[in-house]
Amino acid sequence: MEQLHPLQYEELIKNEIHADIGFAGDLTSTFFIPADRNATASIASRQEGVLSGIDIALFAFRVVSSEIVFEKYMEDGSSVKAGDRAATISGPARAILTAERTALNVLTHMCGIATMTSRMVKAVEGTRARITDTRKTIPGLRALQKYAVRCGGGVNHRFGLDGAVMIKDNHLAGFAGWEEGIPALKKKLGHTVKVEVEVDTLEQLKRLIGLPVDIVLLDNMTPAQLREAVQLVAGRMITEASGNVSLETVREIAESGVDIISSGALTHSVEALDLGLDFHP
Amino acid sequence: MEQLHPLQYEELIKNEIHADIGFAGDLTSTFFIPADRNATASIASRQEGVLSGIDIALFAFRVVSSEIVFEKYMEDGSSVKAGDRAATISGPARAILTAERTALNVLTHMCGIATMTSRMVKAVEGTRARITDTRKTIPGLRALQKYAVRCGGGVNHRFGLDGAVMIKDNHLAGFAGWEEGIPALKKKLGHTVKVEVEVDTLEQLKRLIGLPVDIVLLDNMTPAQLREAVQLVAGRMITEASGNVSLETVREIAESGVDIISSGALTHSVEALDLGLDFHP
Amino acid sequence: MEQLHPLQYEELIKNEIHADIGFAGDLTSTFFIPADRNATASIASRQEGVLSGIDIALFAFRVVSSEIVFEKYMEDGSSVKAGDRAATISGPARAILTAERTALNVLTHMCGIATMTSRMVKAVEGTRARITDTRKTIPGLRALQKYAVRCGGGVNHRFGLDGAVMIKDNHLAGFAGWEEGIPALKKKLGHTVKVEVEVDTLEQLKRLIGLPVDIVLLDNMTPAQLREAVQLVAGRMITEASGNVSLETVREIAESGVDIISSGALTHSVEALDLGLDFHP
Amino acid sequence: MEQLHPLQYEELIKNEIHADIGFAGDLTSTFFIPADRNATASIASRQEGVLSGIDIALFAFRVVSSEIVFEKYMEDGSSVKAGDRAATISGPARAILTAERTALNVLTHMCGIATMTSRMVKAVEGTRARITDTRKTIPGLRALQKYAVRCGGGVNHRFGLDGAVMIKDNHLAGFAGWEEGIPALKKKLGHTVKVEVEVDTLEQLKRLIGLPVDIVLLDNMTPAQLREAVQLVAGRMITEASGNVSLETVREIAESGVDIISSGALTHSVEALDLGLDFHP
Amino acid sequence: MEQLHPLQYEELIKNEIHADIGFAGDLTSTFFIPADRNATASIASRQEGVLSGIDIALFAFRVVSSEIVFEKYMEDGSSVKAGDRAATISGPARAILTAERTALNVLTHMCGIATMTSRMVKAVEGTRARITDTRKTIPGLRALQKYAVRCGGGVNHRFGLDGAVMIKDNHLAGFAGWEEGIPALKKKLGHTVKVEVEVDTLEQLKRLIGLPVDIVLLDNMTPAQLREAVQLVAGRMITEASGNVSLETVREIAESGVDIISSGALTHSVEALDLGLDFHP
Amino acid sequence: MEQLHPLQYEELIKNEIHADIGFAGDLTSTFFIPADRNATASIASRQEGVLSGIDIALFAFRVVSSEIVFEKYMEDGSSVKAGDRAATISGPARAILTAERTALNVLTHMCGIATMTSRMVKAVEGTRARITDTRKTIPGLRALQKYAVRCGGGVNHRFGLDGAVMIKDNHLAGFAGWEEGIPALKKKLGHTVKVEVEVDTLEQLKRLIGLPVDIVLLDNMTPAQLREAVQLVAGRMITEASGNVSLETVREIAESGVDIISSGALTHSVEALDLGLDFHP
To answer: Average pLDDT, stretch D179-203?
Structure first.
């Protein structure tokens, strides 16, 4: 499993802890726990799922105190069962308690994404379809959320508005048609950028074929329509299905033969995985 | 309804849009949509819920272009039905398209929180219980998430580690007992700060009574235990229930007579409310 | 003594040193002192007082060069006499000279606060009164100034506008009266937040009693009035005196029986403690 | 009077207000003052002094609400008497109350500096001496403090380590002597930078004469020694006196004939000028 | 011509001006030019070239004073001759003088890039080749430099390491071969990302054909080799030539039939275009 | 050779790498190079020149991975020949490849400046003239560019608008004449700041003599005029020549006897020195 670069999360975590302690500090730890008290605690899962973000969580503890040391038992992308320990942290008790919430907040969120992605990926096993995300991400968390999708076995859609051209229904609302617009765009566009176009109907799809388009997004089509679309495209473009993607529907969508299935809910409606911090007696 | 201060979200939104356009800009708008094309679009809900974050969403459009103007039809805290328009935006089509996703990402998240909070608040109507959040928030979003809870009719628990003392089970794991620890803490603590202590059993609660504690957190108790706890406390402390709080259980918890019910899921497991941007023909 | 978290001062100190060296660097050290010259110097007090900020001062040296090492002889909160050495720094002479002023600027300021606080605390010894600060702080330095107050034996008033409700005369200027305003406020306010109200007269105080208020600020009252106020309150609220608080007056104020005495001058009119850097021959 | 550039204070003020409101906002204003209540208030002095920082104070109000308008009656550098109004602010009562403390904190500090500087400047009237500051400033506030010195009629010493060469006693502690060091330095130093050297005795001064030095700092000399030093220098260098500079001593120092008198206390031990915010009935 | 988004340059320009004025401000303007003096000045070219960055230059003036107004006579991408005025600025003379250098520094750099790009583009007119840049950019300026290339009629290569896969000689130095490496990579790579591979010889090129590669970079080949490479590829990949690209060589390279010619010197070795600020009498 | 302080480049380099990897990371390294592959590579020059920025380049590698170690063979200011290795880097192959471009972009730029400066310095050897830069720098790079000038043997002109007074033609366009303006300025100006005035003709120069001016900038004069100017000044001011300074002209300018020759092209029109990264087999 590859890892996020610290530049992609260090400021987020530092700012979060800084804001959490504010001008005053962690009043509870500071005034209730002796400064010289050390402790050991484990990050343990209370649910089955997929790990993502363990290095970020451990970084949070290290931000609070450079005296904290840890042992990591699992890497991101690993399956966890209820009771599994991902890592053990040792150091000043005050610092562990101060960092606990920030560490768990980011970890449980990322594990939630990885876990749901992994379920989707398993549901389409044996088909050609790959599971991908969207730009429907939480502000400030895109790099982390997209990484969590990869931890769950998915691949990533474009990362930002600068990553690929994506012409959607709103781009066509009363504007340039594809026939003139796409060739004009291609003249100004760098040669490293792909072009994707969204269609809602098979009629639209037919108009699209033959244009210099790399990917077609088949939005809100039924499995039957998707199957027909895949046949129409016949390998000339990458086919991507979106809309109504859930654990219940994803298998049937995949069996239509599309290359890619994208789901906004993977990142916009995340159910946190339940992990906690257990202090050793 | 009060409003967030722009200082609480401007940097988040600017950074998000800046990262989204990257070095290259919005390739699709820039190269597909004519620079002089104007458009009008509405932010419309596709689901029933409670509005939260409309000013932040509108700010996102204004970040992309100062030429964008808008009309706002609803304020945060309003109920929305499927089809309701919250606001209409007019200006350069390129800019509207560039800002669309960032605006909706933050808005659908905040409305999701406000909507679930509002359902919880309605579920306990007629009891003395108030619904509150926790520090189980998404990194970088605490101010926005806690505001969304207020939009849904909830009140806020402490905002950070500097807002109140909160002694939980992990603080007691092998450390100072309450009997010496709390009086020692009170001597160093400013006079404006409240002290809350978590208990898991009625036995613990009995030990706590008589100590200078403002709030007791009754964690993971059954409704019957909560009722007994409320009677034991007899108004000497504020009572707060937590654990297993859901739309299904919250009424029964509230009927135990507790003052406060806190739910982490309000902010850590948010289901986005479905809102979209409809371009006017 | 607890310590500030590095997040609370690192950026301040780095920015200060960065601005001090600017585009050009420390011209004097760079062009006058050989690069390979090492030196040892001590931070020594030239006055009696209380130490505060020694770790921040040492951090300033480390910012300029990671080759600097130090020995610390005293912790924050210690009493110092003229001639006492708080720490000794060794490393590249250039770096020590570059950091010297920033280190001393922050240290002498914080020691100044701790020293005056400590004098006030000693002046009220034997009474129930505790010395506290206000929000009358220098922009950018609140966390450091409030920490220095704690180093001197004081406790902290609220840290920011988000830390407690504080209704002062200006809040009442033509607005909602307490009788409707405070209950309305309590409905929206989280259960962890205390409410303080300022009164200038005993008549106002009488009106306040019975309202859900945690702390009463008795502003600019004579010792006699304060005594009467304390009797009127009779333990139903915490009593805080403010106005005309100085080393000369504080004992008499404390003997009125108030719980808290707050002084803005502790942080808004600081006389720096004289500490210097002595190079070892 | 020239003005600070907004780049020199906007971030300081925004960060201060942002930290003051934190995640939660101004709880008192938000929950006690109606959102639609407007108010007018004046910034008034309660003491005699010199104004400095009025634009920064007004900026603080504007940061909190762009709906705030103001009238300014005095510019920085003006003399104020007790009761004088410097400006009047009108707008949402909540916003005025939220900004009040930040505005006054910076204003009273800067006026304190300008006032003391002005007293020093008056004390030396008729001599050739000009009053100047040092680098003994509060971290984060150097631009503002040095500007306040100018408001009081002083001039500024170097702004940072990059502004001039300044060889002090600590630079000589066991290092290169002036005779080789200064010529070597001049070869690497740009032609726009002046060189100042500190001496403590007349013997040192004699050794210095003839070297390519622009300014001599005469540290901790008696008025008699200063007079002799000025005669020795005979216009070949600018003469600057420092050490034991106070309102009591400054006239006698000036009468020695030195060109410049520098005082660290102007910025390191500031007594705030008493200004307040009066709400109009 | 499209425009850069202000988020892509505002911070750069503000920081530059802030650092330029430092703690002290623009000493010359402040102390030599009266505060109430107004002036008008034109940005004029002293050389033939292509305009790029005019909005950024004008922004620099507006940063220094919001009282500055301007008229713009030309848009980015326009040809300029010696003597042409691009814009006229009016406002406080102090502010114009303070901003002058920052404005011109960025403008002359960007115009230099646009001008050289435009010459290259003209040199290949009539061939299929498009001129493109590289990631050999000045730190902090990539968005501006790549935009300047577009102003000159070029197109952009990938913007960052996240924009496309680009396998170069150093990636192959003792590592995975293409045959296993590229298919493995394609499984993890999102469907919106293109793959480019660098080859130095025709033998390497032959090995590459048939692999799922979108673009081949033909590095340091002679025109004859390039011609042969283009024939070998036969439209199955986009062909890009690099190495030894200059105004002298570019036409011959283009006539080989390659699709793209990339030049690092466009951004790493920029000769500024000579533009100046002329004050109106 | 002195060194830049890390505060002067760390943020620049971190931001550049962060922007380069974006939300996605280095797609090529991550998905093509195995995580556990280590490599060694050398920074080698392909041209003759002067080294500048080697520590910054090495820092770039360390930003990407703290596991990278290096050996440095040369310090800034050293002469390099084609084939010379400046340093060798070892560590994770992925990290080396990710950092390569940022490291080389900054290094080749700085070496380009040092190399050209060094040629100028050699060209004037034996005269009294010193080579200096201007404020015509690339936004964000001034500290680095001016340091590179020092690496090449030049000295620096003022670093910013706060470093010296510099009255140019545009300052005089219709404003205060020198005769009143300069004495007025001197009264407000600190005693550590020098005053420089630009003249274009010998007539202007004659008017200037006798005013309290430290440096005269002789702009765009012929060698003959410069000689005459130097004689007129007769040591009363430092003489600086500017305009039409190139490797071809600089010797003749220097032989006029001026003290300083300043060149904008040293920093505004930099030709990068060709250095590359060679992986060891």
So the answer is: 95
Strand-pair category, F275-279 with F260-262: unpaired
Residue D1 falls within a domain, yes or no? Answer: no
Say if residue C173's pLDDT is above 80.
Answer: no
Interface touch C161/D22, C-beta < 8 Å: yes
Output the six-digit token pair for B114. 């406000």
Same domain, C250 and C148: yes
What is the mean pLDDT of the segment spanning C54-63?
Answer: 98
Catalytic residue among C76, C219, C240, C259, which?
C219
For strands E49-50 and E79-80, give the pairing: antiparallel
Active site residues of F: 101, 136, 168, 198, 219
Shared-domain flag, residues B162 and B257: yes
Residue C161 to residue D271, Cβ atoms within 8 A: no
- Determine, for residues A163 and F24 on separate chains, whether the beta-carbon distance falls below 8 Å: yes
Q: Is the pLDDT of residue D269 over 90?
A: yes
pTM (predicted TM-score)? 0.96
Q: Residues near F176 by Cβ (< 8 Å), separated by ≥ 6?
A: E32, E33, E34, F184
Distance of CA D108 to the CA centre of its chain: 13
Q: What are the tens digits of pLDDT across the range F1-16? A: 788 999 999 999 999 9
Of F14, F23, F31, the CB nearest to A159: F23
Contact D68, D132 (CB under 8 A): no
Neighbouring chains of F at 3+ CB pairs within 8 Å?
A, B, C, D, E
The answer to whether residue B1 sits within a structural domain is no
Active-site choice (C46, C85, C136, C186): C136
Within a domain: B129: yes
* In the predicted structure, residue B174 carries a pLDDT above the cut 80: no
The token pair at D213 is 């030095």
CA atoms within 13 A on the CB side of B202: 11
Which of the 8 DSSP states describes residue D7?
Answer: G
> Nearest CA to E250 among E144, E178, E154, E111?
E154
Determine the distance in angstroms separating the CA of F70 from the nearest CA of chain D, rounded to an integer.
30
Tell me if E12 and F105 make a contact (CB, 8 A cut-off).
Answer: no
Identify all chain F residues contacting C23, using CB atoms and an 8 Å cutoff.
Answer: 8, 142-143, 146, 159-160
The answer to whether residues F143 and F111 belong to one domain is no
The H or E element spanning position E55 is: helix E54-64
**Number of structural domains, chain E?**
2
Most E-contacting residue of F8, F64, F116, F170 (CB-CB within 10 A), to test interface: F170
CB atoms within 10 A of CB F40: 17
**Residue B112 is part of a domain; what is its CATH number?**
3.90.1170.20
Banded model confidence at residue C169, pLDDT cuts 50, 70, 90: confident
Report CB contact under 8 Å: D176, C33. yes
In chain E, the residue whose alpha carbon lies closest to the alpha carbon of F30 is E185
Is C241 found in the same domain as C128? yes
Are residues E150 and E110 located together in one domain of the fold? no
How many CB atoms sit inside 10 A of residue C170's CB? Answer: 19
Q: Is C259 a catalytic residue?
A: no
The CATH number covering residue E214 comes to 3.20.20.70
Residue of A nearest to D23 (CA): A19
Cβ separation of E155 and A238 shorter than 8 Å? no
Distance CA C165, CA C169 (A): 13
| CA neighbor of D188 nearest in space, from C77, C129, E5, F146 | F146
The residue that leads in pLDDT, C263 or C177, is C263
Residue E1 is assigned to a structural domain of this protein? no
Which residues constitute the domain of residue C159?
Answer: 124-268
The verdict on C133 and C255 lying in the same domain is yes
All residues of chain B having their beta carbon less than 8 Å from the beta carbon of residue A25 are 161-162
Q: Are residues B38 and B101 in the same domain?
A: yes
Q: Does C140 share its domain with C71? A: no
Instruction: For residue range D4-34, list pLDDT tens digits in order.
Output: 999 999 999 999 999 999 999 999 999 999 9
